[in-house]
Automatic annotation (TrEMBL):
Organism: Quillaja saponaria
A GO molecular function held by the record: DNA binding
Coiled coil: none
Name this protein carries in UniProt: NAC domain protein
UniProt entry tagged with the keyword DNA-binding: yes
Length: 200
């Protein structure tokens, strides 16, 4: 990570559930607790266009993960993140609400007339109930940060752009049924070979 690149070793794939993202990573970040492995970096949300995340955020497949401070103004150099009316609760295994996930889409240009792109962000927030498990003394200190940090998962939807590879993992929107660009090329080559008649 010293060179700014945040990647997993070959053969490893970061594939957490929503619950794991909230309780293991975001909770530790907001509580100033050590997190092992500490692989998700902090980035300034307003300063990054989604295509600039490669090499700066934790990259796995076509998804990028990073921490950011909560900000109302999600403007970047070339556009802005627009909130969608989609908010999903995140429940722990005991069916207790521990966080929320809301969706944003990246628009190029100035709000509100920007052009929608295929870039999507899932923004994870903690619920205050997560901190109620701590003692009153430590909770008073930790509550200062529980609503200041979010964990962001950014990916490019397939369909609008043929340049994005399919990656299915965790709770992402991609179903994994679409072919990647490489798969589509291989399938088209197979079709071409079927049409070729070899001499006897």
């Amino acid at each position: 990570m010293g060179d700014g690149s945040v990647n997993l070793p070959p053969g490893f794939r970061f594939c957490p559930t929503d619950e794991e993202l909230v309780l293991h990573f975001l909770y530790c970040k907001a509580s100033h607790l050590p997190c092992h492995p500490n692989i998700i970096p902090d980035l300034d949300l307003p300063l990054r266009d989604p295509w600039e995340l490669n090499g700066k955020a934790l990259s796995t497949g076509n998804q990028y993960y990073y921490f950011a401070k909560v900000k109302e103004n999600r403007v970047t150099e070339n556009g802005y993140w627009k909130e969608l009316d989609i908010i999903e609760p995140i429940n722990a295994s005991a069916d207790k609400k521990v966080g929320m996930k809301n969706y944003l889409v990246f628009n190029i240009g100035e709000s509100p007339t920007g052009v929608e792109t295929s870039w999507v962000m899932q923004e994870y927030h903690l619920c205050s109930s997560v901190f109620n498990r701590a003692s009153h003394k430590s909770r008073r200190k930790r509550n200062l940060d529980y609503n200041k940090w979010v964990l962001c998962r950014v990916y490019e939807r397939n369909g609008n752009s043929g340049e994005s590879n399919t990656f299915s993992c965790g709770d992402g929107d991609d179903s994994g049924t679409e072919l990647s660009l490489l798969d589509e090329i291989l399938v088209s080559l197979d079709d071409d070979f079927d049409e070729i008649s070899l001499p006897n």
